[in-house]
Specification:
Elements (H helix, E strand, L loop, with lengths): L19 H6 L15 E7 L5 E7 L1 H5 L3 E5 L25 E2 L5 E7 L2 H8 L3 E6 L6 H6 L10 E4 L10 E9 L12 E5 L5 E5 L4 H12 L6 E5 L13 H15 L3 E3 L3 H7 L6 E9 L5 E13 L5 H10 L9 E10 L13 H19 L3 H8 L20 H11 L2 H11 L6 E14 L8 E8 L5 E5 L8 H13 L6 E3 L2 E2 L14 H28 L6 E4 L2 E4 L2 E4 H10 L5 E7 L4 E3 L4 E3 L3 E14 L5 E10 L7 H20 L30 E6 L25 H12 L16 H12 L1
Parallel strand pairs: 1-12, 10-11, 14-15, 18-19, 28-29
Antiparallel strand pairs: 1-5, 2-4, 2-6, 3-5, 7-15, 8-13, 9-10, 9-12, 11-20, 13-14, 16-27, 17-18, 17-24, 21-22, 22-23, 25-26, 27-28
The structure holds ligand MTE, hypoxanthine and dioxothiomolybdenum(VI) ion.
Length: 769
């Protein structure tokens, strides 16, 4: 693939994922493929078998005596601090000591010569508990007066209208399920001890810097003794933003204790039992609206199942509130979060980071109004869209300045033939057929930036070697989203050289320090700008040097097509670099970037938490079998805004993948805990993720090619990782419409998510009653 990359050109459309061939031929190196030094040991976790209890005795003699076992680690064996909480709250012990707070909580690790021996030995523990009553979900937690895991957030503006002050008023409740990340590659950490305090950890983490600091904390050593490396992940989806801390810590402690390389890799069941998932929510809402369907006020309470520790539940529940308006202006509003502690696994980041749970509440409110007034939901949506010059202030007091939704929705309505197809669906549903149809068009507006403002920074280390080849290292991690490809495109474009002159190396805390998690969809925005800064520094040095060397004006030195033009001379890029090296020009640079304009005051609930918004919309048409609740998604049309795309191939892949993953969340993926508090859906046998056959039969995905970020982002692009995850809310709503057709749309179907065939059948029965 020898070619010059010009981002402003169509050429970029064809740049596929830099590891695509390696992925499909099986030679891409994942953590478990790294060669193991002789004597490598394997760790496995021993976990709690009750949901809540005081530990009265721990007898690990059976474990220690098991074949192949080298030793066991409990809290007493942690040289530093027994904590791996990502926010510094110190509420997440690595190993439980006197108390366990969920079924599956790690109590010890066993280290053996083989993974199989460690796994078998872990089952031989004899732990006794004094069982305490437990709470599994958010509703139960509120009833039992369980604490919040972190301070709730309130967003407020104006006055809530109640009773006679409102033309219409509706109250309701929506329950939205959680979701397991189901990354293809599970959690893994592989630690190799070095001299003195040193340890190197290879891991599949979205957040190498945090893993580094956690390993230092549990070992009681400075961060400079710890290196964390990540070449790539087999998917993260937020599940590896904080959850890898545990595994890195265990591998590192064991590696230092026995002075051997130690690997830890839970099997899928343990991975699902002990690592956090998407938060499920119980949302109570009160909406007032006028005869035209325009919202007058919204009062919403967002209670989330956070699990036993805070983890990232604070920022996740905050982001739910930030998205509880979705695309709509609420003149009067009060939104509150209830981040509830429960005796379940500690829930964590998952694509959208609470945003989807907020957006679906806004869409339910629209449905309530539309069904109450007997109107098309699209008409009610339009009536409530944020305005261009007025009606544009969010509940958190940020003004929406870049609203491209009206255009997106108009174009999609037209290109998908929404109106004529909707008429056909309504007509079909009058035929009394067993198969009922539904159609819906839903929009998305998603805020881009970490709401923890300080996370919005990034670094890059760029080396040009004296043969002209380039080594690119930035703080982001590659999890399949194509981040490395995009950053390499930025560098290739800056120097106007071939894409494959650039070597993308593993992410390592040795090269770029204090990085943020690759999360909040900001990987390209942040690291792309840091890379550009590094390129600009080197180009400036090269141009200064060449101007002096050839005694020529700076403007006459141009980087073009693998060459440098110096006046009329054309010099090959590699030759130019060799000459610069000989003349002692520094050929490497460290780039840095921090997002401008953003600020957030959580106490006041005011500020500009987001640099900009990404937008999109989708239409789904579905068919539901009203005798069984089974359904098919017949057609989906998407129009999504990625600003000026850096790479339409990768961006379309992100939109398609996010859509199907979001469909899974809303239709088939269901987490179930039994009364004892044990997660029963801990393998793909009982937890149904979408299959290739679940992809919409007709799936038309388009990027809004005219769009351009009005803010100065990298090449005016927009983040794409998370926003399209919310597009499939149209599938959910279309299913509801098919069900409501049974009573001639007389009532809002009020489906809870996920809309499994079982739940649809229950809704159908409710309609018949
Ligand atoms: N795409 C793939 N293939 N694999 C992933 O794990 N994670 C998603 C999204 N797309 C993910 C993905 C999530 S949760 C985020 S926040 C972004 O990618 C992170 O990467 P970015 O910031 O570079 O877009
Ligand atoms: N998004 C994703 N991950 C995060 C965030 C966020 O806003 N804040 C902290 N981690
Ligand atoms: Mo994504 S949930 O911000 O890792």
């Amino acid at each position: 693939m020898k070619r010059t990359i010009d981002i402003q050109d169509d050429v970029r459309a064809g740049v596929y994922h830099d590891s695509a061939v390696k992925h499909v031929t099986g030679v891409a190196e994942y953590c478990d493929d790294i060669g193991e030094p002789a004597g490598t040991l394997h760790a496995y976790l021993g976990t709690s078998k009750v949901a809540h209890g005081i530990i009265t005795s721990v007898d690990l003699s059976g474990v220690a005596k098991a074949p192949g076992v080298v030793g066991v680690l409990t809290a007493k064996d942690i040289p530093g601090v027994n904590d791996v909480s990502p926010t510094g709250k110190k509420d997440e012990p690595l190993f439980a000591t006197d108390k366990v707070e969920f079924w599956g909580q790690p109590i010890f690790a066993v280290v053996a010569q083989s993974r199989d021996e460690a796994r078998r030995a872990a089952e031989l523990a004899n732990v006794e508990y004094e069982v305490i009553s437990h709470v599994i979900d958010a509703s139960g937690a509120m009833k039992a007066n369980y604490p919040h895991v972190t301070d709730p957030l309130k967003l407020e503006r104006g006055n809530i209208l109640k009773g006679q002050n409102a033309e219409h008023q509706i109250s309701g409740q929506l329950r939205v399920g959680g979701q397991d990340h189901m990354y293809l590659e599970g959690h893994i950490a592989f630690a190799i001890p070095g001299e003195d305090e040193d340890v190197v950890v290879h891991s599949s983490t979205q957040h190498p810097s945090e893993a580094q600091h956690m390993v230092a904390q549990v070992l009681g050593i400075p961060s400079n003794a710890v290196v964390v490396n990540v070449r790539r992940m087999g998917g993260g989806f937020g599940g590896k933003e904080s959850q890898m801390n545990l595994f890195c810590a265990v591998a590192a402690i064991a590696a230092k204790r026995w002075n051997q390389a130690v690997k830890i890799r839970p099997d899928r069941d343990q991975d699902m039992e002990i690592t956090g998932k998407r938060h499920d929510f119980v949302i109570d809402y009160d909406v007032a609206f006028d005869n035209f369907g325009q919202i007058q006020s919204v009062d919403g309470q967002f209670a989330a199942r956070c699990g036993w520790s805070s983890d990232l539940s604070g920022p996740v529940t905050d982001r739910a509130l930030f998205h509880a308006d979705n695309a709509y202006y609420y003149p009067n509003v009060r939104l509150t979060s209830r981040p509830m502690k429960t005796n379940t696994v500690s829930n964590t980041a998952f694509r959208g980071f609470g945003g989807p749970q907020g957006v679906i509440a806004a869409e339910r409110i629209i449905e309530e109004i539309a069904y109450a007034l007997g109107k098309d939901t699209l008409e009610i949506r339009r009536a409530n869209f944020y305005g261009q010059n007025d009606r544009n202030m969010t509940p958190y007091h940020q003004t929406v300045e870049d609203n491209v939704l009206p255009r997106i929705v108009d174009e999609l309505e037209e290109s998908s033939h929404y109106q004529s197809r909707r008429r056909a669906v309504l007509e079909h549903n009058t035929q009394n057929s067993i198969i009922r149809k539904g159609i819906a068009l839903t929009p998305v507006k998603f805020g881009i930036s970490f709401t923890a403002t300080w996370y919005n920074q990034a670094g890059c280390l760029l080396h040009i070697y004296n043969d002209g080849s380039i080594m690119l290292n930035h703080g982001g991690t590659e999890m399949g989203q194509g981040l490395n490809t995009k950053i390499a495109q930025v560098v290739a474009d800056a120097f106007q050289i071939d894409f494959d002159c650039i070597k993308i190396t593993k992410t390592t805390t040795e090269k770029v320090p204090n990085t943020s998690a690759t999360a909040a969809s900001s990987g390209t925005d942040l690291n792309g700008m840091a890379a550009l800064d590094a390129c600009d520094q080197i180009k400036e040095r090269l141009t200064d040097w060449a101007a002096g060397h050839w005694e020529i004006a700076h403007e006459d030195i141009l980087f073009l097509e693998n060459t440098v033009r110096v006046g009329v001379q054309v010099i090959a890029f590699s030759e130019f670099i060799r000459m610069a090296y000989k003349d002692r020009v520094q050929l490497w640079a460290a780039g840095f970037y921090k997002t401008p304009k953003i600020n957030w005051n959580r106490e006041k609930g005011e500020g500009r938490p987001f640099y900009y918004f990404a937008y999109g919309a989708a239409v789904a048409e579905v068919s539901v079998d009203t005798l069984t609740g089974e359904y098919s998604v017949d057609r989906v049309d998407v129009l999504h805004d990625v600003g000026k795309s850096l790479n339409p191939t990768l961006d379309k892949g992100q939109v398609e993948g996010a859509f199907v993953q979001g469909m899974g969340w809303l239709t088939s993926e269901e987490l179930y805990w039994n009364d004892a508090g044990r997660l029963m859906t801990h393998a793909p046998s009982t937890y149904k993720i979408p299959l290739a056959s679940d992809v919409p039969r007709e799936f038309n995905v388009k990027l809004a090619e005219w769009s351009e970020n009005r803010e100065l982002t990298i090449k005016r692009s927009k983040a794409v990782g998370e926003p399209p995850f919310m597009l499939p809310i149209c599938v959910f709503e279309a299913l509801g419409m098919a069900v409501a057709s049974l009573i001639d749309y007389a009532e809002c179907p009020r489906l809870d998510a996920p809309a499994t065939p079982e739940r649809l059948l229950m809704a159908i029965e409710r309609m018949h009653r």
